Amino acid sequence: MNARDNILQRLRAAPQGKTVVAPDVSGFYAAVRSAAPAEDRAACIERFCERMAFWRGEVVRVTRGNWAETLRALCLAKGVSSLLYGAQTAHAATLEGAGIKGLKPYDRPVDEWKLELFRDTDAGFTSTRGGIAETGTLIVWPDEKEPRLMSLVPPIHFALFDADQLYDTLFDAMAAQDWSGGMPTNALLISGPSKTADIQVTLAYGAHGPKELIILLLVGEEEL
Amino acid sequence: MSAHGNTQEHTQALHFVPASEFKQRTTEAVADEHLRKSFRGAMDFLMAKRAAQFPDPAALEAQRGLAEHIRKYSLARLPELLEQLERKLTANGVQVHWAENGEEANAIIIGIAQKHSAKLMVKGKSMVSEETELNHAMEAAGIAALESDMGEYIVQLDGEKPSHIIMPAIHKTKQQIARLFAEKVPGASYTESVDELIGIGRAVLREKFMSAEIGLSGVNFAVAETGTLCLVENEGNGRMCTTVPDVHVAITGIEKVVERLEHVVPLYGLLTRSATGQAITTYFNLISGPRKPGEKDGPKEVHLVLLDNGRTQAYADEQMRATLHCIRCGACMNHCPVYTRIGGHAYGTTYPGPIGEIISPHMMGLAATHALPTASSLCGACGEVCPVKIPIPDLLIRLRGEATHDARPGHAPLVGQGAAKSALMDAVWAGWAALYTRPRLYRAFGWLATRFRFLTPPVQSGWTVSRTPLKPAARSLRDLLAERRKKTS
Fold first, then answer.
1. With an 8 Å Cβ cutoff, are B289 and A193 in contact?
2. How many of the other CB atoms lie within 10 Å of CB of B293?
3. Quick check: B150 and A207 CB within 8 A?
């Protein structure tokens, strides 16, 4: 008998107790929603911005036409001299055409340039898969085009987020995007820059991850 | 090897203080003004932050009801879910290991480390690895184990154990931490600025994330349907440990599994709100497998160690099974009047406070831990704030009983069953029962007690330390009533 069999055998030998029916999570959230007042898109976006600001995420409203130019200006203002990006992404061409200094593609395995990534990379730029208004949260699914460390190691994380992908709750996002149908190797929820309150309950930012999180929120011209 | 160069001497101090010396340590803790001030301040802060997250009691009740339901459902199907989790994870490329106790778990992890000739393991926050005393075992095998959560890093640097499961260094002031860093971190100068202190830790640990061959983490929820490990954190050290080193080893108790991804949503929402009064943490890290071909980073190997360590004993009893609902938020500690006064170290166990009092007896046996369930006034605050509705006060009473008698018919004895049995106490209760079930004897006793009350000793052991002595009344209630009836008639 190995550990696995012993553990499972002990669990199976325990009294069964009353049958427990499956919890109705979706019914629970449907009831919460129907009890809440209706909200339009503008209010939902506003709520996301407020919550994200509470986590000290900086939200900048941009359009499809001007986001790269805005990013260039932000990089200049923050003294960013190297910006990590994914060269195979849909937004790469726009980014490359914006005249941002020090654009650096994440184009080889981390093992080959770990030191440079940790020591000589000022900022990382990633897309996002969506956002959550209730908590002021970004959904980031790293992949081969935009690897995991882009949103973690550089001191500044710029995230491009399309307001069309804004959901009310985490439950809504999971259901709408069918997460349980197939998870990537790594999925992330990000709410603000890295922080800690481990010394005398005093909040400090930039514990191990980015010190700044800047969200480029893609909205329509009329929503700027 | 800067920050942990002196780990050899730490390993001695890192040993658990015996839980059996609990009473003596509580006396010392209560006399420590600094400690009491630290905990009082922090617990008040955390209680207020939590309360602000739950303005509507009815909504909170509904959420707790759902969360309890999910935990009950998961435990009812635990063996099947563990098998499903193993199947899914294996299909995703994660290697699953099982351990019956801490020693087995440590041996598995050391084996993985040795296979990769690892010299350094960086650790994200994991209470289960504290439970198995993994650091100690790793050091003994010649592999450095470095805590990277800021609070854990601080307590490890000082050769201590965490004093709170969410805020490990809560017992320390920033002046103490400033002195510690100036002394033990090469190149660090004394500063009381919290930002600068965090900056020092950040710089030291970033170097370690780069050089470590292995990253270790705990698991907050394991999802059976997708084979996903969920990690909750604010700092980003958990992401570092699970992403930068070539090998990621996760360790968790067998009770952490849930069936579906959607079951995580309400549990996660309650966990962060109950723990630190945050609506959400900075990071929620969902790991479903190692680096795939074509991916440029992430660990090349991912392992999961599933640990029993006494959990199946709690599972075997229908009432005590609720102990395993726990999602480790620490709210029961934050609200416990005893914990607030004595702090986490006095318990001498990995999990302090009310949850520690009901889980430690299963992990360490009642012989070492029978005093713990008595460290409660049974005020009920722990049960009231528990987000998964563990009836902690009921379980405290149950364990107090189990420590003083043999196993009841139909129940398997717990480890250390009856460890607090005392012939004197048994005799006192037998005498009491004899007296109170025999009216004549009882009356004779009353007659004697009222007449010879002058014989009661003025010093009555523990009772008179802070109370006036017990003394029978001059007349019994029965006599007084009889007299009054006579007068009125």
1. no
2. 5
3. yes
Contact B76 A20 (CB under 8 A): yes
Q: Which of B42, B76, B198 sits opposite A196 (nearest CB)?
A: B198
* Contact present, B288 and B304 (Cβ < 8 Å): no
- Looking at chain B, which residue has its C-alpha nearest residue A195? B235
Torsion of CA B373, B379, B384, B389, to 10 degrees: 30
Q: What is the pLDDT of residue B403?
A: 96
Cα-trace Rg, chain A: 21
Q: Which among A208, A212, A213, A215 is the top mutation candidate for probing chain B, defined by the most B β-carbons within 10 Å of its own β-carbon? A: A208
- Cβ distance A115 to B235 less than 8 Å, yes or no, reads no
Q: What is the phi/psi pair of residue B194, to 5°? A: -60, -40
Which whole number is the average pLDDT over B375-389?
Answer: 98
Residue A73's H or E segment, with its range, is: helix A67-77
Q: Which helix (H) or strand (E) holds B304?
A: strand B301-307
Strands A156-162 and A123-127: parallel
d(CA A100, CA A92): 12
Scan for tokens 């084979």, then name that residue: B227
Cα–Cα distance, A189 to B7 (Å, whole number): 35
CB atoms within 10 A of CB A17: 11
Contact list, B306 vs chain A (CB under 8 Å): 7
* Minimum CA–CA partner of A52 in chain B: B282
Neighbours of A114 (CB within 10 A): 17
* Tokens representing residue B44 in the block: 């008040």
The residue assigned the tokens 């296979």 is: B115
Q: Is A8 on the interface with B (CB under 8 A)?
A: yes
Q: How far apart are CA B317 and CA B325, in angstroms?
A: 13
User: What ipTM goes with this model?
Assistant: 0.97
Considering the segment(s) A40-223 as one domain, its CATH architecture is 3-Layer(aba) Sandwich (3.40)
User: Which helix (DSSP H) or strand (DSSP E) does residue B79 occupy?
Assistant: helix B78-92
User: For residue B458, which phi and psi values (nearest 5 degrees)?
Assistant: -75, -25
Domain-wise residue ranges, chain A: 40-223
Q: Give the fold, CATH level 3, of B7-312.
A: Rossmann fold (3.40.50)
| Token digits of residue B130 | 């504290």
Whether the model clears a pTM of 0.90, i.e. scores above it, the answer is: yes
Other Cβ atoms within 10 Å of B455 Cβ, number? 10
CB distance from A6 to chain B under 8 Å?
Answer: yes
Cβ distance of A185 and B291 shorter than 8 Å: yes
Of B323, B319, B310, B325, nearest in space to B410 by CA: B319
Predicted confidence (pLDDT) at residue B319 exceeds the cutoff of 50: yes
Instruction: Kindly calculate the radius of gyration of chain B based on its CA atoms and give it in whole angstroms.
Output: 26
Domain ranges of chain B: 7-312, 423-488
Specify the 3-state DSSP secondary structure of B215: strand
Determine how many CB atoms are found less than 10 A away from the CB of residue A130.
Answer: 20
* CB-nearest partner of A199 from B99, B174, B239: B174
Range scoring the smallest mean pLDDT among A4-8, B2-6, B101-105, B366-370:
B2-6
